[in-house]
Amino acid sequence: MNRPDDIVREMLEGMALAFPDIIRLDSQWNNVYRRYRKPGNRVALVCGGGSGHEPAQAGYVGYGMLDAVAAGHVFTAPPAPQVLAAINEVANDVGVFVIITNYTGDVMNFGIAIKMASAKGVKLDYIIVNDDVSISDISKRRGTTITILINKIAGAAAEEGWSLEEVKRVAQKVLDNGRDIGVALTPCILPTTGKPTFELAYDEIEFGIGVHGEAGVKRMKYIQSRELAKIMVDAIADDLKLQKGDEVALVVQGTGGTPYMEKFVFYRDVRMYVESLGLKVFTSWIGEFFTSLDMQGARVAILRLDDELKRLLVAPAYTIAIRTPGIVVS
């Protein structure tokens, strides 16, 4: 990097230079907008939050997903005026749907912006994503990987011209049927301080982490990949009350610094255990989707599907991070 204070802006400038056909960067705010869109004929989707989770969230701006993202500084919610600018940029008569991750700063600042926009006559609605099963108190669960699946499915619905009410309905269905859990093998290093966010011994796993480099809900000794896969899948399956024969989307990802060799080993173990439970995997995502800077670790997310969710999940999308050509689902 150059200067820590400039890292978010320069990252976004790099993205805009690399993908000018997909996004454009706001000259005033660290906001990213979809390059080509037909204003006024479809619900606009807005998301955002702190940076350091790339490709989230700017990587999901584009056809079939988000219209605008407000990017805060590293692990810091964007201020309300910035979020308001993003909402106003894409507002139209059909409505704006705002996707918020359940962190105190995001809920507060996006909430203020929503109230301000609503007072000016903007038609909008929102969802607060809380999919992290490591926390027993549902109201305190953090928003993690299911946020991206909401971006994809609600974005597909909006692209098809669904009403604001219907876009929210399908987004809520995703949240009701999706859960995530994460572990860290190392802390991440904040670019502003150059220091790790917590201390972790070489033979320890931080279990139940969020996405901001914070410690998890418990610490445990290293175990084999297949054992870890079982523990993480069981936590999700128990919370969702998954049943034999349920069809699911399976997301296995690193946390920013995990080698693909290890990601695929872990995916193998997760997939084999999921199938041993009698679950049917409709589609899988393996990669990096909602990261924590350079942290080494893994996240597992499972979304229970029906025909509606299956069709929207594989509908066409063209963004920096997700590109699906559209698949016919029988």
Task: Describe the fold and architecture.
This protein has helices at 7-18, 80-90, 104-119, 146-159, 164-177, 225-240, 260-276, 307-313; strands spanning 23-25, 31-34, 44-51, 62-63, 68-74, 96-101, 124-129, 178-184, 204-207, 218-221, 247-254, 280-287, 297-304, 317-319, 323-324. The chain has 330 residues and is an alpha/beta fold. It has a 6-stranded mixed sheet with strand order 1-2-5-3-6-7, with helices on both faces. Strand 6 (96-101), helix 3 and strand 7 (124-129) form a beta-alpha-beta unit. The N and C termini lie far apart (48 Å).
CATH-level-2 architecture of the largest domain:
3-Layer(aba) Sandwich
- Helicity, as a percent range: 25-40%
Average pLDDT over all residues: 96
CATH-defined fold name of the largest domain: Rossmann fold
Largest sheet: 6 strands, mixed
Number of helices: 8
The value of Rg in angstroms is: 19 Å
Distance between the termini: 48 Å
Strand order of the largest sheet: 1-2-5-3-6-7
Strand residue content: 15-25%
- Globular, elongated, flat, extended or rod-shaped: what is the shape? globular
SSE topology string: HEEEEEHEHEHHEEEHEHEEHEE
Poorly predicted runs are none
Which CATH C-level class of the largest domain is it? Alpha Beta
Number of E strands: 15
Would you tell me the structural class of the helices and strands? alpha/beta
CATH superfamily of the largest domain: Dihydroxyacetone kinase, domain 1
Taken together, the total number of domains comes to 2
Give a brief rundown of this model.
This protein is α/β, with parallel strands linked by helices. Helix content is 32%, strand content 24%. The chain starts with 6 loop residues before the first helix and ends in a 6-residue tail after the last strand.
